Amino acid sequence: MNKAWATRLLPAAVLLAGGCAAWRLWGEIPVSTGPAAAAVPEASEERRKAALFHSDLGPDTVDVSSYPAARRRDYEVYARACSRCHTLARSINAPFVNRAWWEFYIARMRVRAGFHGETLTKKEIKAVLEFLQHDDQTRKLGRPEEFEAQQRELKRRFEAALDERMERLQKQPLPRL
């Protein structure tokens, strides 16, 4: 195998392995059968209309006041870097709790951002990964009942938003050909 072929194959293999790991680990969040009272603030109408994922409808900030100082600094980097392209709600409320998944996701985002002239340094990527991993352990896995209740509510709201979109589309007149 020549060197040029190997340099093309390695990134593809890494992305594929990350995707497989994410698929395999998708159900890693413990499911609660008991009630949890996690109030989820309503998203604006604009966000409901633009939501691509149920996580887009959740809160777009995290209270990091109890996080270690290094993770609070990482949160600032995360907020600055990730909000350039999408709402922070998407990743804050995502059901993923595995560093391998976040590495895969960030690699994908780096490629997409590159098309728009945006770049992330290795230092920024490390900070984002450190924050997401700590946040996953603290909020998602550390309080699984609350997080699972939030996920159920966001999914319910997303389904309602999709129903509203379909209703609007069905009321529109058909285009004339």
Q: How would you characterize the overall build of this protein?
A:
It is built from 7 helices and no strands. The chain has 177 residues and is mainly alpha-helical. The longest helix has 28 residues, at 144-171. The protein is globular. 25% of the residues are buried. The model is unreliable at 21-37 (pLDDT under 50).
Give the tags:
single chain, 177 residues, mainly alpha
Which band does the percent of strand residues land in?
under 5%
Number of contiguous helices: 7
> Rg to the nearest angstrom?
19 Å
Q: How would a crystallographer describe the biggest sheet?
A: none
Question: Helices, strands, pairings?
Answer:
Layout: H1 3-25, H2 45-50, H3 69-82, H4 89-92, H5 99-114, H6 122-140, H7 144-171
Helix pairs in contact: 1-5, 3-6, 5-6
Give a short overview.
With about 180 residues, the chain is mainly α. It is about 60% helix and about 0% strand. Helix 1 crosses helix 5 (about 100-115), helix 3 crosses helix 6 and helix 5 (about 100-115) packs across helix 6.
